[in-house]
Amino acid sequence: MNVTARERRLSAVLAVAALVAAAATIGLVGRAWFFFYDEWGVILYRRSGGASAFLAPHNGHLQATVIVIYRVLFAAVGLRHYGAYRAVEIGLHVVCAGLLYLYASRRCRPVVAALAAVLFAFLGAGWEVLLWPVNAGFVLPLVALLGCLLLWDAGVRWELPLTIVLGVLAVASSGLGLAVVAGLAVEAALLRKPARLVVVGAVGVSWVAWFVLYRPSALPPAGLRSLPGASPRGDVGSVGYSSANVGRLPGWILRSARATVEGLCGTARPEVAYAVGAAMALGLVWALLARRVGIRFLAVGGALGVFWVLTGLARAAAQSPEASRYEYPAALLVVLLLVEVVPRRLPAAALGVGALAVALSLLGGIHTLNRAGGGAKAAFGAEKAALARAERCRGRLPAATPLDPVRAPGLTAGPFWVATSQLGYPVPPERVGPNDSCAPGRPPAR
Known about the structure:
Helix content is 65%, strand content 2%. With 446 residues, the chain is an all-alpha fold. It has one domain (5-377).
């Protein structure tokens, strides 16, 4: 079936409209969101300093690019305008969905590419990434992956230097970057492209060197860790890979796959996931028999498998594979797999069924986003009140006083006062009444 210029134009309009609508929806749903959990570690222990501020691990991850983003925002808006942080995260998601459309439109019918972009743009199951800016570390490796695949398909002149840049972007954002590099290495090896393989391998080796040689003893800048009330280890935390999790891997991967399918379907009903998963499995069997499974499918599948294995080895004992931030990258990789096997010649009825399925998923995604943002006003209202009390009680609380152990564990009064003196106040102290006690451990009267 020939693709007409009209279909290309309409598909592009649909994709752009979906991205604009998704950005507006995410911005509206998350309007009550505020500095939360891991972000306070960046504020307290990464806002200044040299290499260690960027290279010391956070929960086991190298997140240098995320620290760069926050440092730029610290300089630009301080802590006064959280909307700027959310705008960057939403922008990165839109870029990722846009690259997905550009990539898919070169490998399947433009209308199918537009539907794929809509499906991913409204991925409510990935709300932790969409609403929480510190999770940019899960978006940037995917941007790097799509960028590399587009470059390799186009065969541009500066392919290798750009591959290095995108590879470093991936591994310097989170552990997901290692899965991205693994997938790219699979493709380079199967295509017998030694230059690509050497470049990608060098990036992977550099991450392994960081992980083995630098990560175990690295800490954030000493000047920020030595402030009164600060943690001697800053925000490094301790997460490592455990051989005890090897036996949990099969169950982890199966649950991850089910959660990913549920997320793409916009529902948490397991029977829907099983039905759609079975249909996808039958489609894969058909693709194998029809010899539609190519090298790109194997490369993306390799990246997905490495991601699930690495997260399982590190998190299987402590966290659930249904965590929203894990569903986000897995969903994109599954969409890329579908793009590889979907027939280019689809009857109108099949396109109609696909469009209906995407529309239902879109509604489910918006519902999930609304539910995730629904409790934000109350939750972050309590956090803002605690921070405002700390500011009003400046100097009258012990420096080690925890401010909000639920939403900001590790945030203590002394480092908070120093950070806000440098970056500005995230909330005005007037939110707390003059009669509220400044005694340690006493919450403000509401």
